[in-house]
Amino acid sequence: MASLMPNFVSRLFRPFTSSTNMGLGPAQGGAQNIPDTAQKCTVAAGCFWGVEHLFRKNFGDKGLYDARVGYIGGDSNNPSYRAVCTGRTGHAEALQMTFDPSRLSYTTLLEFFYKMHDPTTKDRQGADTGTQYRSAIFYHSPEQEQAAREVTEKAQNQWWKNKGITTEILEAGQWWDAESYHQLYLDKNPGGYECPAHYVRSFPPLS
């Protein structure tokens, strides 16, 4: 843990941007001309820098069109990173992915979600504590809700059976893109802060 502290401290004291740009276009390096058949997957699993990085690394050439970090689940408009970090807006730091369902299934993304973070620590991942770091799945259709509940039950019984999963399963509400400097953050800042709870566990396939 000691080796992680410099990055963690730098995250705490890194200057906040004054930008109000929500970056509604594709992020730098993001996908262009996404077809109408694409679907969305929205999850929250702690600090969104590492979540985005892991999903892009594992699915960037397997049907993932784009992945953007942002804020969801709160009760204010156009939240800034500074405001979300207070924990008072109700938003979670989250990742919204756009994917090709003919190449990459929603279930596959959810199974990876349960491998790459600890869903049993309520409002916390590693040293990052607060409701903005909660674990959540925000579904975009009744079919996604059913899949989320089925995968969650399997993950609880087979992968996290000695602990209780605290992941919220909620209908996706208003999404707000995070400021542009958060998009592809770890690609732009190699060696930047990564939550120690973000790594891919070696679980057997769900049955």
Explain the overall architecture:
The protein has 207 residues and is an alpha+beta fold. The protein has helices at residues 5-13, 48-59, 81-85, 106-116, 142-158, 185-188; strands at residues 39-45, 64-72, 92-99, 124-125, 128-129, 135-139, 168-171, 176-177. The strands form two sheets. Strands 7-6-1-3-2-8 form a six-stranded mixed β-sheet, with helices on one face. A two-stranded antiparallel sheet has the order 4-5. Strand 6 (135-139), helix 5 (142-158) and strand 7 (168-171) form a beta-alpha-beta unit. Helix 4 (106-116) packs across helix 5. The protein is globular, with a radius of gyration of 16 Å. Residues 1-10 and 12-30 have low confidence and may be disordered.
